[in-house]
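Input.
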Amino acid sequence: MNPLTGDLPLHPALVHLPLGLAFVMPLLTVALLAGRRWFGPPVVGLVAVLQLVLVAGAVVAKETGEDAEGPAKEQGAPRAVIHEHEERAELFTVLAGLGFLALAGSTAAGTRRAAVPLLGAASVLSLATAVQGARTGHEGGELVYEYGAGVEKVGEAVGEPAAEPTQH
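Output.
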């Protein structure tokens, strides 16, 4: 039993940090790229640190998702949907990592002229990460709301009868 969450799975609680950051990062990277004033390595570095938090959160969410896979299969969630969700999560993590590398490179570049191409890459990668995060989250929601993955444990934890998963 987890001392923080009891029998509740960690994955649903942890996925929100990387997803939330994934939707904020395109705004920050575009602001750095399009700003009239060069904010310099300290500000770009701060944005890179936020991207690194996103990457770390994605890795942790992916690991806890793997822990939730067995119970989801036991509850009748289709293996194909679980596999698709896992594949999307892996791509999300890779895109976030590439975005971090671009931001770290632009921090190290030091001058706006040298940083702009890397900030452009970081902007594109952050947008791709956000899109992939939305797709991954949609698949996760489908697992919960259409197939009942994790619903039984949540219902039992609050003393309510478990919801029956819908069959397609």
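The chain has a mean pLDDT of 88.
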